[in-house]
Specification:
The complex is a heterodimer of chains A (363) and B (374).
Chain A lengths: L3 E3 L7 E3 L3 H17 L5 H14 L1 E3 L2 E5 L3 H31 L3 H33 E3 L2 E4 L5 H15 L6 H14 L2 E2 L2 E5 L4 H77 L1 E3 L2 E5 L3 H17 L8 H12 E8 L16 H6 L5
Antiparallel strand pairs in A: 1-11, 2-3, 3-4, 4-5, 5-6, 6-7, 7-8, 8-9, 9-10, 10-11
Chain B lengths: L1 H13 L6 E8 L7 E7 L4 E6 L2 E6 L3 E6 L3 E6 L6 E5 L4 H4 L10 H6 L1 H26 L5 H12 L6 E2 L2 H14 L7 E5 L6 E4 L3 E5 H6 L3 H16 L2 H17 L3 H33 L5 H14 L9 E2 L7 H11 L12 H8 L1 H4 L10
Parallel strand pairs in B: 9-11
Antiparallel strand pairs in B: 1-2, 1-7, 2-3, 3-4, 5-6, 6-7, 8-9, 10-11, 10-12
Helix pairs in contact in B: 4-9, 6-8, 6-13, 8-10, 8-11, 9-10, 11-12
Classes of the chains: A alpha+beta (363), B alpha+beta (374).
Chain lengths: 363, 374
């Protein structure tokens, strides 16, 4: 085992060894401190939480380590507040003043500017969030990162998202996979780049089902309502018809929401299997083994946990999601430890302020 | 350093065999992923010697930083080499652990004072901050120099995009109405805006706008006198600046918390406040109407119509408006009706011709702009 890791024959390269009992004291003290500080402690809470989750995630023979701090997350937040939130407030003020003075068009244009900026920065935030997480993740003392600041990725994010919507959203699978590739191809861990060549073709079928589902379901629902009415008529004449029709409509609505949600989950399950499976790092191939059923169980579990604890279960969701991610993540291949040297990427000194501001996940 | 040695020797005297010792240790140098497994030996002073078949290094104790505690081990970092990681057993002889950096759980300050005391302390500071931010606008608002407020008002609306209506007769009628309800030496700047909404607003810089919509629906000049007096009340009580400060303060305070909950709390807090301000402005209006011998029944009638038409609720608004987030219209109607003197004979506040001039002011103004967003 010394100096070399050969993935063949191992059970799984990624193992999660935490328990919710160990996590609970962290989550509850975090909640307490976050409340008494009016939310300011949440940056330190995040760091504590990640420190635990990372330290309980083993890759081959060594645990991961989270080296990020609450302080840098807090500063990231302050920077976003200063450079972004304040100007947006100011622009809105000016836009309102312009509209009040009769410069409606100019005012409206100026009012739209922040939206465009937010659109652009959403992409930048995605990129920088991933870069930040890699740069704060240590395995055997080695970290990841990226040499790109993500500003160009923000532009790609804009045009690819817009192009995806032009043919009525049919290119969304393409924009999602191609942005995944673009993001990960710029990332590295230690001396090696990640490589990703996910293809939209393999997730398109699922997406198409999701895309067509509303139409199919609408047709089906009309048929169902009609049949309900017929059945109702058979049983109870006019009144029975109305009742049968109502049952049909309720069935349609339930089917619409649950069915559409299920198909969306099926698409995402397939999407993550495809993109993670297409991602490589040196001689290591990754895969993500969560089936649609696994995702459904995760989401239903989340919902039940939150509902039955009257909301307190929310503090355990990050634990559940991380465990889900690590448990289903697999890697195969070979690492030569002698060649695995420290990353030369620059590390940003501040946390994922933007990502935090837009409330998104990194992966 | 001399002091260090003396403490050490005290400890060494009680257990003389362990003055220096060795424990199992593993480390990463932060340059490659190779793990060095061997031992750490302490020289009894200020240095830890790490020895493994693959590497030999000496680390000054003062260079070590606490990284994180795991179930049976503690991970230390080096200040001089940020990626260096040293794993030592969690159970260490007291002599050495005293020289190792202290364990951190919640973060610097909190660890120093303890979780319980820190939570209470933070809680008190937070309550004080909330109290300060909630009350500051009330005493700070009236202290903002009026000239600042005027400039702010200018910056916000300017000439209102040419939408202010003006005819000689209409202006005269409005001035007469204002004289009745605003006895101050420097009067507010009251104008009629060509906006077809049943509303009136008080804006920063002692500016009051009556929308054409409220004038068109008015059944008597006394009604408009009541509306105008109410808005003047907002200006005189400095509600506008207070509201602006409050909004600003709340957004700063809630920036720390996440937005979803924040918005709700913000809306509720702002709501409770405006209701008080509205009552204050109403009281001011009733006092002025009584002083000038104007019937409050006009305003009462207006509220009765509003209560009928819109129910008893308004919606919240950034500026202190006539219908925005107000106390229930029915209650206000009652208050105005009760203010009327029994059997009194109020003279009309405007002649029919003057009231008419107000009503046709926007239609007769040739240069006024229409209000539309595009």
């Amino acid at each position: 085992m010394h100096g070399k890791y050969d993935g063949e024959g191992e059970q799984s390269a990624f193992v999660f060894e935490g328990t919710w009992r160990e996590f609970a004291p962290i989550a509850f003290t975090n909640l307490l401190l976050t409340i008494v500080t009016l939310g300011i402690y949440r940056f330190w809470a995040t760091a504590r939480e990640r420190r635990y989750l990372w330290s309980k995630s083993r890759f081959v023979d060594e645990q991961l380590e989270w080296a990020g701090t609450g302080k840098e997350l807090f500063f990231g937040f302050l920077i976003v507040l200063l450079l972004f939130a304040m100007p947006v407030v100011l622009i809105n003020f000016v836009a309102q003043a312009l509209i009040a003075r009769g410069q409606e068009i100019l005012g409206a244009l100026l009012g739209i500017a922040p939206l465009l900026i937010i659109f652009y920065l959403t992409g930048v935030a995605r990129f920088r969030g991933l870069r930040y997480r890699l740069s704060r993740t240590r395995w055997r003392g080695i970290r990841g990162g990226s040499d790109e600041p993500g500003f160009r990725y923000g532009l790609s994010y804009m045009w690819k998202s817009i192009v995806a919507w032009i043919p009525l959203g049919l290119l969304i699978p393409w924009s999602m996979t191609s942005l995944w590739n673009e993001r990960w191809n710029k990332m590295s861990f230690g001396p090696y780049q990640f490589q990703s060549d996910a293809e939209a073709g393999s997730v398109f079928a699922r997406f198409f089902v999701f895309y067509l589902a509303p139409f199919i379901m609408f047709g089906g629902a009309v048929a169902m309502a009609g049949m309900g009415m017929l059945a109702g008529y058979g049983i109870g004449g006019e009144d029975g018809m109305a009742l049968g029709g109502a049952f049909g409509v309720i069935g349609m609505i339930l089917f619409f929401y649950l069915g559409l949600g299920l198909i969306a989950v099926a698409f995402y399950a397939k999407f993550y299997r495809e993109v993670v499976g297409a991602t490589r790092w040196k001689d290591l191939n990754f895969s993500f083994e969560a089936s649609t059923m696994d995702w459904v169980k995760l989401l239903i579990g989340d919902a039940l946990l939150v509902v039955f604890t009257l909301g307190i279960g929310l503090i355990f969701l990050s634990y559940r999601h991380w465990k889900f991610f690590i448990t289903h993540l697999e890697a195969n291949g070979e690492i030569l430890l002698d060649e695995l040297t420290q990353s030369t990427t620059r590390t940003a000194r501040h946390g994922e302020g933007l990502l935090d501001a837009f409330d998104m996940g990194a992966i | 350093m001399a002091k260090d040695c003396s403490t050490l020797s005290t400890w060494a005297r009680s257990e003389p065999m362990q003055e220096s010792f060795e424990v199992a240790a593993s480390w990463y140098d932060g340059k490659s992923a190779l793990r060095h497994e061997g031992s750490a030996s302490w020289d009894g002073l200020d240095r830890l010697s790490l020895a493994a078949p693959t590497s030999h290094i000496a680390v000054p104790l003062s260079d070590l930083e606490f990284g994180e505690a795991r179930s049976e081990t503690i991970i230390y970092r080096r200040a001089s080499e940020p990626d260096f990681r040293l794993t030592l057993p969690a159970a260490m002889p007291p002599g050495l652990s005293r020289h190792l950096p202290e364990k951190q759980v919640y973060g610097g300050w909190i660890d120093r004072v303890g979780l319980g005391r820190a939570a209470v302390g933070f809680g008190l500071v937070s309550i004080a901050a909330v109290a300060l931010f909630m009350t500051a606008p009330d005493w700070l608002g009236p202290r903002v120099p009026e000239s600042w407020e005027r400039n702010l008002g200018q910056a916000m609306i300017g000439d209102f995009g040419g939408r202010l209506c003006s005819t000689p007769d209409g202006d005269a009628a409005l001035a007469k109405l204002l004289d009745e309800v605003d006895p101050a030496q420097t009067q507010v700047n009251a104008r009629v805006a060509n906006i077809d909404m049943v509303n009136a607003v008080a804006l920063p810089g002692a500016q009051v706008l009556l929308f054409d919509g409220i004038i068109q629906q008015a059944e008597s000049p006394e009604e408009l006198a009541g509306v105008l007096a109410h808005e003047v009340g907002h200006v005189r009580e400095r509600h506008v600046m207070t509201a602006l400060l409050r909004q600003f303060g709340m957004s700063v305070l809630l920036a720390g918390a996440n937005t979803g909950v924040g918005d709700t709390v913000f809306g509720l807090a702002a709501m409770g406040y405006t209701r008080d301000a509205e009552r204050e402005a109403d009281r001011y209006a009733r006092a002025r109407l009584a002083e000038s011998n104007i019937s409050p029944l006009g305003a009462a009638g207006f509220f009765e119509r509003m209560a009928e038409e819109y129910g008893d609720d308004g919606e919240s608004n950034a500026v202190v408006g006539w219908l925005a987030s107000h106390p229930a219209a029915g209650e206000r109607a009652r208050d105005f009706r009760n203010a009327a003197r029994e059997g009194a004979d109020y003279p009309p506040v405007l002649s029919d011709a003057e009231f008419d001039a107000l009503k046709t002011m926007c239609a007769d103004d040739p240069d006024v702009e229409e209000f539309d967003f595009f």
